[in-house]
């Protein structure tokens, strides 16, 4: 990975996002900067078709600002981005897509995958200029829906150096065939106990919606209409894909990564075609990656304590709302017990069990 080029590009993305965010807080037709006009035609035409009437015809969950698109609930401003990805994503050999429902460890996975892939140019230990010491993980790996919704998909993705790392919250059935059926493209999926996911989502959402009741999120999750819901379908899609094509889809669990981070990083590096060499094993490089990306290490960094509004999500949805520190809360399993009664937990567990029945996968 050419990290320097990658970094320059990512910072260019942020400038664009900031400009784009000021102009496009609503879902209107994307009009690019004059200098981008040529490159953005394809994205813009897909977005145009999706703007206004088409999106407003989709089923809505008004409390959570969600629309149901192709059977899954997504944030309204992401819909045009998904349509643009489905129509215009140009795959490249070696692409790696990090997929997850929101609040399931995306930030951690981005950091681990980036550190693993970039370790040739930037050793995870002893490099004071390591990008992850200076930038939030979301600023190192772009979020596809946001990028394409901003009309910057083709331009930015084309310019990213190979192998490209990118992230999405799209469920598997919504991915374009250019990703889902592509033998040259790998997918790393991470999921988490949905009870902890909900708690994490509630705390995160309350930063911009202090009035949001936990019960609203909880009911939506049980009914299948929370963000990325039904959650069981999101998980099931990637679980089945990982069973059918284990060489192309790696299925990870947040709790398992907490339990054995080094083992999971070793597996991740193998899956990505970058196994640790005997010399690296001897030197403990996998452990270095884990240390660099640990919750406390990232949380305590200046950029993540005080940085703001530079992530793709924060930059466009509501500028500056999601400060970098908002991606690091507790970083543990089991916080749901502080927010749910045993009866609520049983209800959500039962909904998940029902949705996952027969799959061979279970959160319990
Ligand atoms: P909590 O809110 O339960 O603490 P996402 O990155 O998908 O938005 O998920 C956010 C969750 O991952 C938050 O969970 C956050 O604290 C946790 N997290 C962020 N970075 C982490 C890391 N390096 N290690 C473990 N957990 C991390």
Automatic annotation (TrEMBL):
Enzyme Commission designation: 2.8.2.-
Transferase recorded as keyword: yes
Gene3D superfamilies: P-loop containing nucleotide triphosphate hydrolases
Residue span(s) of domain Sulfotransferase: 94-359
GO molecular function terms noted in the UniProt entry: sulfotransferase activity
Any Pfam family: Sulfotransfer_1
Keywords carried by this UniProt record: Transferase
UniProt family annotation: Belongs to the sulfotransferase 1 family.
Protein name: Sulfotransferase
Lineage: Eukaryota, Viridiplantae, Streptophyta, Embryophyta, Tracheophyta
């Amino acid at each position: 990975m050419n990290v320097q080029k990658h970094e320059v590009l990512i910072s260019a993305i942020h400038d664009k996002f900031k400009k784009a965010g000021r102009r496009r807080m609503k879902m209107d037709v994307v009009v690019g900067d004059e200098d981008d006009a040529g490159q953005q035609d394809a994205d813009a035409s897909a977005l145009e078709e999706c703007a206004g009437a088409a999106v407003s015809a989709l089923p809505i969950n008004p409390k959570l600002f969600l629309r149901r698109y192709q059977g899954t609930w997504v944030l309204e401003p992401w819909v045009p981005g998904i349509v643009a990805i489905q129509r215009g994503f140009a795959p490249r050999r070696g692409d790696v897509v990090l997929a997850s429902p929101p609040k399931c460890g995306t930030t951690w996975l981005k950091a681990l995958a980036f550190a693993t892939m970039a370790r040739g140019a930037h050793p995870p230990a002893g490099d004071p200029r390591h990008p992850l010491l200076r930038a939030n993980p979301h600023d190192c790996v772009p979020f596809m829906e946001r990028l394409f919704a901003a009309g910057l998909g083709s331009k930015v993705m084309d310019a990213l150096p190979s192998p490209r790392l990118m992230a999405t919250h799209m469920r598997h059935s919504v991915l374009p065939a250019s990703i889902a059926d592509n033998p040259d493209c790998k997918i790393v999926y991470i999921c988490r106990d949905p009870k902890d996911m909900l708690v994490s989502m509630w705390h995160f959402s309350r930063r911009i919606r202090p009035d949001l009741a936990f019960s609203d999120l909880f009911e939506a999750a049980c009914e299948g209409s929370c963000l990325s819901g039904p959650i069981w379908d999101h998980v099931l899609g990637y679980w089945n894909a990982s069973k059918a094509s284990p060489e192309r889809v790696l299925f990870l669990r947040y709790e398992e990564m907490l339990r054995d981070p080094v083992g999971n990083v070793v597996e991740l590096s193998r899956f990505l075609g970058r196994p640790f060499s005997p010399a690296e094993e001897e030197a403990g490089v996998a452990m270095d990656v884990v240390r660099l990306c640990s919750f406390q290490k990232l949380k305590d960094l200046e950029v993540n304590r005080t940085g703001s509004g530079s992530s793709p999500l924060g930059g466009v949805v509501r500028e500056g709302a999601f400060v970098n520190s908002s991606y690091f809360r507790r970083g543990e399993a089991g916080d749901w017990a502080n927010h749910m009664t045993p009866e609520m937990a049983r209800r959500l567990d039962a909904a998940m069990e029902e949705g996952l029945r027969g799959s061979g996968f279970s959160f319990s």
